[in-house]
Amino acid sequence: MARNTQVAADPHAPPVTRTLARFVATHPSRGWSDAVDHEAHRTFLNWVGCAAGAAEHEAARAALAAVAMLQPAPQATVLGRRERVDMASAALVNGITSHTFDFDDTYLKTIIHPAGPVASALFALAEVTGATGRQLVDALVLGIDVSCRLGNAMYPDHYDRGWHITGSTGTLGAAAGCARLLGLDEERTAMALGIAASQPVGMREQFGTMTKPFHPGGAARAGLLSALLAKHGFTASPKAIEAPRGYVQVVSTKCDWAEATDDLGSRFEISFNTYKPFACGIVIHPAIDACVQLRAKGVRPEDVERIELRVHPLVLELTGKKEPQDGLQGKFSVYHGCAAGIFFGQAGEGEYEDAVVRREDVTALRRKVVATVDDAVDEAAADVTAILKDGRREHVRVEHAIGSLERPMTDANLEAKFRSLAEPIMGARRTADLIEACWNLGAAPGVAALATLGRP
């Protein structure tokens, strides 16, 4: 019986796989501005802090217990842990921990968290191969460029149909970065991308569970393996990204090829990376920011009758959990985020501990938040009004939350965030030394010293 094989595909797509491979393989070292290079160091610093800070989370313990059953060789570092495992498992676990707190970097155009897959794979590979810090930074910039460009080519359709875009594009970004770190030529870099194109990982259904942070970890491991396979002659389709039944056209109906290849070498997507001040989904940040401002204006939990929140439809689609039962679910509750902002004046990882999410007084305030979808409110904005028991009304509208490109976190902000995450794991002195090592990565002869600092 004949099947309907009609595919809405573009048979004349440009050679995206080959173009990206040539770019990754041949672009000169530090072939970008000082500002781009500094952003790469900010990205790496933020990644290390997030990964080390989550080292004692139950997700990290479960992942390490699983990979230990594979009897891995002690090749590479798991940040914040004494254990060393094989480099593929290190890429997996560091990718998991870097995203566990939902506190990692965010490329706002597509909501990709680019460092988790790419930096996790590169750090493990660099430790094993003895690559220099400069080689790692170069590979980080180029790998993130590939990941974000492919996301741009498919967003929002790819995301809307249920893919967790961090994992699904991160596999290719990690493969590109590792191919660069291994010094693969254009042909073998194309094969690495082709192998990675058959391994997209991550569904949005998993948000609020440990499997969400598995996505960047799985992408890091898959990208690393893709590059290692290509290094040793494993082959793939040279059109794996753009072919009618290749990666992009299978997982998305939007295929904007220009987004993938325009301005290669002159515009670097890492320039547009941002960093979270709040440990939760990025769409909640404007609402939390507004509630922190309400607290600064004198609004106290005991005085609140009702919190009226107007938000973009995507906010409730992604973070509409009214009664989260634990910290992971709380990160996908705009109601809890608002309560945390007013209750504590912040929403770091401590405000998403299970015990805090379940606290009766926090729960009571959370239930006073009334969220309404308003198409006139941009997804980067929030409009919040506190109605107090004495009849007063306090109003705050946030157009761009702190941490956005319009209101970026400073280097000092990033260091403070790093310390809050890492000091409980590493201690103050070691954390300070680790911060300095991250800032100096581009000049380091290797990553061994940084890796040693990353183990408590």
Description:
With 456 residues, this protein is α+β, with helices and mostly antiparallel strands. The chain has 2 domains: 277 residues, 2-methylcitrate dehydratase PrpD (Orthogonal Bundle), CATH 1.10.4100.10; 117 residues, 2-Layer Sandwich (60s Ribosomal Protein L30, Chain: A), CATH 3.30.1330. 55% of the residues are buried. The protein is 52% helix and 7% strand.
What's the layout of helices and strands?
Layout: H1 16-26, H2 34-53, H3 58-68, E1 76-77, E2 84-85, H4 87-100, E3 106-107, H5 115-129, H6 133-154, H7 157-160, H8 165-181, H9 186-197, H10 211-231, H11 247-251, H12 257-261, E4 273-274, H13 285-296, E5 304-311, H14 313-319, H15 327-330, H16 334-344, H17 354-358, H18 360-366, E6 369-373, E7 382-388, E8 393-398, H19 411-426, H20 428-439, H21 448-453
Parallel strand pairs: 5-6
Antiparallel strand pairs: 1-2, 3-4, 5-7, 7-8
Helix pairs in contact: 1-9, 2-4, 2-19, 3-4, 4-5, 4-10, 5-6, 5-8, 5-10, 6-8, 8-9, 8-10, 9-10, 13-16, 16-18, 19-20
- Quote the average pLDDT: 96
Assembly type of the shown chains? single chain
What is the helix content?
Answer: 40-55%
What is the structural class?
Answer: alpha+beta
Strand order of the largest sheet: 6-5-7-8
CATH class bucket of the largest domain: Mainly Alpha
Shape: globular
CATH homologous superfamily assignment of the largest domain: 2-methylcitrate dehydratase PrpD
Order of helices and strands: HHHEEHEHHHHHHHHEHEHHHHHEEEHHH
Going by CATH, the architecture of the largest domain would be Orthogonal Bundle
Main beta-sheet annotation: 4 strands, mixed
Number of helices: 21
Task: Please compute the radius of gyration using only Cα atoms.
Answer: 22 Å
